[in-house]
Amino acid sequence: MRFTLNGKRARLDVHPMKRLLDVLREDCGFTGTKEGCGEGECGACTILIEGMPVNSCLVPAAHADGARVTTIEGLDGRHPLQRAFVDHGGAQCGICTPGMIMAAVALGRKPTLEQIRVGLAGNLCRCTGYSAIYRSIRRAR
Amino acid sequence: MLRDEPTLTPLAGCTDLYVALNFGTLKDTRFLDLWRLDRLRKIELRGGALSIGALATFTDLIRSTLVRKRLPMLAAAARDVGGVQIQNRGTIGGNVANASPAGDTLPVLAAADAVVVLQQAGGIRRVPFDGFYTGYRQTVRRPGELIVGIEIPPVRGRQFFRKVGTRAAQAISKIVMAGILGPATGSGRTARIALGSVAPTVVRVPRTEAALASGASIEAVQRTLMEEIAPIDDLRSTAEYRRRVAANLLARFVCGASRG
Amino acid sequence: MPSRSVGRSVVRKEGRGKVTGAARYIDDLTFPGLIHARTIRSTIPAGEIVDVAFGFDTSGFTLVDYRDIPGRNIVALIDDDQPCLAERLVRHVAEPILLLAHADREALLAADVRIRYREAVPTYDATTSPIAFKTIAIDKGRIDQGFREADVIVEGEYRTGHQEQLYIEPNGVIAVPEHGGVTVYGSMQCPYYVHRALKVLLDLPDDKVRVVQTETGGGFGGKEEYPSMIAGHAALVAIKAQRPVKLVYDRVEDMLATTKRHPAVIRHRTGVKRDGTLTAIDIDAVIDGGAYATLSAVVLSRGVIHATGPYRCDHIRIRGRATMTNTPPNGAFRGFGAPQTQFAAEVHMDRIAEALGIDPVRIREINALRPGDRTATGQRLGRDCSALAVLRETVKRTDFKRKWRAYARLKASRCLKASRYKEGGSRGIGLSLFFHGAGFTGGGEVKLASKASLALTDRGARILVASTEIGQGTRTMHAQIVADTLGVPYDCVDVNAADTGQVPDSGPTVASRTCMVVGRILQRCAEDMRERLGRLTPREYLKRHGPLVITREYERPTDMAWDDNSYRGDAYGTYGWACDVAEIEVDRETWEVKPIAFTTVHEIGKAIHPVLALGQIEGGSAQGLGYALLEEVVMRDGRMANAQLTNYIIPTTLDTPPIDVVILENPYKHGPFGAKGVGEMPIDGPAPAAINALRNAGFDLREIPATPERVMVSEKQEPRHALHA
């Protein structure tokens, strides 16, 4: 398969049904994308394909062929959401954080609280009660 | 390809598929990938009917002005599916093919008298939604046939959709109901009502619909509905809860304000 | 002493790693030659293993059973009753029997092991189980006299279910054979618990076992004792195969096999005067320990000590029992027995108020513990007792009394028939007042004798503790305490990894003790270091005198005393105090309960890092609301039938209301900068507040979770509680 991963072209020889999550973690060495359940419930493995958030545990490698894929590593540590999640307590244990940030990136700039709540309904966090995540997103500059 | 190897499992958004794979219920299966067939993603009007390609995702349904205008209850159902990540991948064709009695869009399609369009090498056949499911996770789709689209004839009347899930979002339904309330006929009202998670397949409730048309009291119609459905106790809820909630939702639908 | 970082929300130490994906959790690590392991578990709840057969070619596999254990076949903890691998007897579904390992995960998953059993009759009812792991009796005053003084006696039985911790990162470890011993890396709360368990299991000396905590994706108690089990498994395979072994559970296995919160059945019988004064509290609490003792004895202990709630009463009798059932062992979970017993106490308190015809605030004002009062164990409370303060602040902030009356009136006047099919729901508001002891119970801290070390560095100091960062902010908060005590900037204090090869045993990261207890030991280290430095900078000191490492051990405050035999004395160094108000709406057609607003006031001594403290309170409150309304473990024939994230329901964004938090500070004299514990208390209050809100809306529930199915049935029940003495 060939695809654009975090802005760089990549070429891999993997089984077309291998989960994209495993391709990213094992074949590409990008372990920032996490697995929490393996059934599309927790959202910890959220990445962007063509800018749209998806659960990478439910995507076959073949579906990324030719696509633009972005993981947490693709934000280069410079995205305003990343700093805001540190400053405002959006990240506690951190295991849901990469997926949460990727889902938040897809919300675009200045989402309303309601847009945030609906947009993150597919991302489970057990530490924060979500409040600090909302604050982080709303205060990201 | 399906003609040569009819046991291939067609796949699209894979939101159900990988869950089944995890639990070993699809061992040694070979797959036919449909995801790239963009022509099956179209949502359009064709001969007066709303034609939805099997590969239209829930996000496509939510964003489609055609769907929102013609069949708002379908957009409402799509919004209640999983989270955004699932909506971006799950397809209406997959929801129909997966044949879960809890499928969120299925009662909408049943109430709307949708038609499932099946294609194989020999040509196309259309199956009314009411006759599509034959039992728990069983359909009339033949090996070698592919669901390519759903057609929904014009719907007149007030639409209603309500999913009662295990939580406020990202939930599997305990009971899901869709309905269309037509104009009054004589003393009664024509209505088409379908429910999910109350029987082995999504069901229409013809006796309840007839009771409504005959002008029976709402209490009598509710009693008919409670007798007509056959819910069970399972991991997610109880038969009694499902019966009583079904009756309450029916009353809200018939007597109260609409949703969806 | 100038306070530069304490009280400010400085940048957390590991924050950047977590938001960039650079932080390495156990499943992100690999080692050369690594193989994968899999656990073969029992499929029956009780019986004997008759025969094990392998339905695959075993060449290339490493197979491990109990005969491969060089030391004792136990998971060493308190009672030493739990085998690491079952030998003949099986006591619960998912009990580990065999371990398989292979380099190829597909081959490993495909391996087919068949085990035949001779089944025995299982026990599932904790209240009738003949086997008790622990019984505890607390007596204060004379219960008979208390009931004689009562005008009214109120009785009730309350039930709470299992709760799964549901950290988003499942349990996992990697074991690496090295230097004639083993090193285990893993997701865990308590490296030294694992260290000790491995020494006993493997019959190895201290220096041949090394345990290193990796970045940990949540614990909530679920990684307190269980990692000792999974580490033992991986270590056994690693030693036999002489290769690194990864053993990481998937979600289903984690839910089926690991510990959960103890279900409880708690009966109250309370004597009260017409004016609302409590005269007698009689409580019987049974918690379901599951198949092995694990931590049940100490969970029960904390449970019964908190069982009265934060109320004064001269005559108290409490009987507690932790019993055996043939279900997977229950264990540590945030709150540790107190959420169960305080749920019962607080729901019961509203029913007492109802029986007397007074409001829920008044009954609590009359009976709340004040400074100088004595608790059930006879502990005299100091000036840092804040029960009334948190109650009054919460009531004022939420306009509780007005709303409570308004909703109650609405309930009374509601004509259900007329309003049934209208939009909207029935509203209710409920309150809970609660407390939580910080640190180990009774003499626990003395027995632990925790140590902490501080090493002088060029820039400042390096913290050496076994306390783990599991999301709550351990590293950051410890560094703040040390920085301010030592008088150096926060950035000049580093924190060593929790690696038993490098850090002393600071005890487990549990029991809301990491700040108050370990933080205080570190503060003493820093005080000594500051004295040693005198006017020298760290760099100058190192140049002149060489390396400096200061180690200090826990010292019990001289004003504390506890007798474990009579269960009398100072159960905890101090308590945090809190009050919750939940406002809910019940859908009249579906009985779904939606929390609309949630307010909590927490008195925690001192918030070392306000953002982190707030995070603990918000997160614990949300987890408590899940416990109250959504989270249900369905046990069928001793097996968790809904062991999937799809079917075990925790709150999403849309299930969680806005959480309004107020932090009050009433310093504890022996805590660092006055700090008490904060981690667990937030989960004690939400369940009773939500259930009391349901009562206000017209639904009489005595059991959680309050699923719509239970709410539906509760509507039928007539209130029935007051027996006149």
> What is the H/E string of chain A?
EEHEEEHHHH
- End-to-end separation of chain C: 58 Å
Counted beta strands of chain A: 5
- What's the shape of chain C? globular
State the shape of chain A.
Answer: globular
Task: Give the CATH topology of the largest domain in chain A.
Answer: Ubiquitin-like (UB roll)
Describe this entry's structure for a reader.
The complex is a heterotrimer of chains A (141), B (260) and C (725). Chain A has 141 residues and is of the alpha+beta class. In chain A, 29% of the residues lie in helices and 13% in strands. Chain A has a five-stranded mixed β-sheet. In chain A, a hairpin with a 2-residue loop joins strand 1 and strand 2. In chain A, helix 2 packs across helix 5. The N and C termini of chain A lie far apart (36 Å). The model of chain A has no long low-confidence stretch (mean pLDDT 97). With 260 residues, chain B is of the alpha+beta class. Chain B has two domains: 135 residues, 2-Layer Sandwich (Uridine Diphospho-n-acetylenolpyruvylglucosamine Reductase, domain 3); 98 residues, Enolase-like, domain 1 (2-Layer Sandwich). Chain B is 30% helix and 27% strand. In chain B, the strands form four sheets. Chain B has a five-stranded antiparallel β-sheet with strand order 3-4-9-5-6. A four-stranded antiparallel β-sheet of chain B has the order 10-11-12-13, sandwiched between helices. A two-stranded parallel sheet of chain B has the order 1-2. In chain B, strand 12 and strand 13 form a beta hairpin. The longest helix of chain B is centred in the C-terminal third of the chain and has 17 residues. The termini of chain B are far apart. With 725 residues, chain C is α+β, with helices and mostly antiparallel strands. The longest helix of chain C is centred in the last third of the chain and has 20 residues. The interface between A and C is large, with 52 and 55 residues.
Topology of helices and strands:
The complex is a heterotrimer of chains A (141), B (260) and C (725).
Chain A: E1 2-5, E2 8-11, H1 20-27, E3 46-49, E4 52-55, E5 68-70, H2 80-87, H3 97-105, H4 113-119, H5 131-139
Helix pairs in contact in A: 2-5
Chain B: E1 9-11, H1 17-22, E2 31-33, E3 43-46, E4 49-53, H2 58-63, H3 65-70, H4 72-79, H5 84-87, H6 92-98, H7 106-111, E5 115-120, E6 123-128, E7 133-135, E8 138-139, E9 146-152, E10 158-165, E11 173-185, E12 188-196, E13 203-204, H8 206-213, H9 218-228, H10 239-255
Parallel strand pairs in B: 1-2
Antiparallel strand pairs in B: 3-4, 4-9, 5-6, 5-9, 7-8, 10-11, 11-12, 12-13
Chain C: H1 15-20, E1 35-41, E2 47-54, E3 62-64, E4 89-90, E5 96-102, H2 105-110, E6 113-119, E7 132-140, H3 143-148, E8 152-160, E9 172-178, E10 181-186, H4 191-202, E11 209-213, H5 226-241, E12 245-248, H6 251-257, E13 264-272, E14 278-290, H7 296-305, E15 316-324, H8 338-356, H9 360-367, H10 387-398, H11 400-413, H12 416-419, E16 425-437, H13 444-448, E17 451-456, E18 461-464, H14 474-486, E19 493-495, H15 514-533, H16 538-545, E20 549-553, E21 562-563, E22 568-569, E23 575-587, E24 593-603, H17 610-629, E25 635-636, E26 639-640, E27 659-664, H18 686-697, H19 708-714, E28 722-724
Parallel strand pairs in C: 1-12, 10-11, 14-15, 18-19, 24-27
Antiparallel strand pairs in C: 1-5, 2-4, 2-6, 3-5, 7-15, 8-13, 8-28, 9-10, 9-12, 13-14, 16-23, 17-18, 17-20, 21-22, 23-24, 25-26
